[in-house]
Amino acid sequence: MSNAITRRVEFHFDFGSPNAYLSHLVIPGIEERTGATFEYVPILLGGVFKATNNASPAVTLQGIRNKPEYQALETQRFLVAHGITRYERNPHFPVNTLQLMRGAVFAQQTDFFEQYVEEMYRHMWAEPKKMDEADVIEAALLESGLPAAEIIAGMQDPAVKQRLIKNTEGSVARGVFGSPSFFVDDELYFGKDRLRDVEEAIGA
Amino acid sequence: MSNAITRRVEFHFDFGSPNAYLSHLVIPGIEERTGATFEYVPILLGGVFKATNNASPAVTLQGIRNKPEYQALETQRFLVAHGITRYERNPHFPVNTLQLMRGAVFAQQTDFFEQYVEEMYRHMWAEPKKMDEADVIEAALLESGLPAAEIIAGMQDPAVKQRLIKNTEGSVARGVFGSPSFFVDDELYFGKDRLRDVEEAIGA
Q1: Could you give the ipTM of this predicted complex?
Q2: Quick check: B50 contacting A, CB < 8 Å?
Q3: Is A39 at the interface with chain B, CB within 8 A?
Q4: Which of B65, B70, B175 sits opposite A190 (nearest CB)?
Q5: Cα–Cα distance for residue pair A120/B197, rounded to 1 Å
Q6: Is B69 on the interface with A (CB under 8 A)?
Q7: Is the model's pLDDT at A109 over the cut of 60?
Q8: Nearest CA in chain A to B54
Q9: Residue of B66, B169, B179 best to disrupt the A interface, most CBs of A under 10 A
Q10: Which of A60, A102, A199, B56 has the fewest Cβ atoms surrounding its Cβ within 10 A?
Q11: What is the pTM for the complete model shown?
């Protein structure tokens, strides 16, 4: 654990990515085993895709035989391997997460950031809702016991908007092209299946 | 090891895939640790791509920022993790491997199949040559001490040609869409980074 505390571990996340959600569920175990703390960096995945000319698997796998089925199989294996039960495909996928991610940037300045992340992930991938509609977002925030009015106002703060853009640009500048992405110091790891490598890198 | 001998482990390979070559270098260690023997199944990756509407990373990564660099980083990590030194990008990539794979099917009926696989991989990815030209193939076979005339004649055998097509179709029918692909019994694993999962599945 002596190395863990000297390494900076980052999780660049967007609530819109199911693989980021599944990673989020596995991170606490890694933190426990390594003593490291993952820094959650809100980014806009749509912005990453635009900047890198990349697209989500939902797009790139279209029309390819066998590959989507294999990805589903790997997700199933991941769920089993980690004992994950609270995961449900969001029927409104893809959900535009611009407001939710701005809310995450705002929440980082408060003491309810962790609760916000936990709850928004729940509303996206455990009890999935159409979280790009203002009234759905507000109802979800209220249901979670979060200060809805304060957060919704924060989403409109120009400094918050700017910070999300800056996070996203910074992420791309460091090599990110999709989700989920992790850094151990400046070493990039892409994909939920790299979490084992991330854990080893933390301990290395 | 008691389970290993009851499980059928397959490596569906094409000499044209660098990731299949790198997997090939790691397989002996897995065989040693698990007691399993990988059955090498020659397939034509171009045929798989055609049947599944998939394409090689060299094609799909084109024009995407950061992702090709990340793939190169992961290859570098794989080389380091497994102490691989004899790997060199083939400057003639992509090499049409139709003749080489027909040769593999033919060699399966002989006692020099293992030597053929080892040597063709060397000529593709350790001392890379343009292995889709008849004179280059012949010179390579001779240099390797293999019966060149016999193998080249075998490549033209209609039964051999048919078998390669059948292998490829069978592979796609079981879920394959790219290279490298592995089966543990009927469970598909795709990618050199899944070899750890393959090893665990053999032992499971």
Answers
A1: 0.94
A2: no
A3: no
A4: B70
A5: 32
A6: yes
A7: yes
A8: A64
A9: B66
A10: A60
A11: 0.94
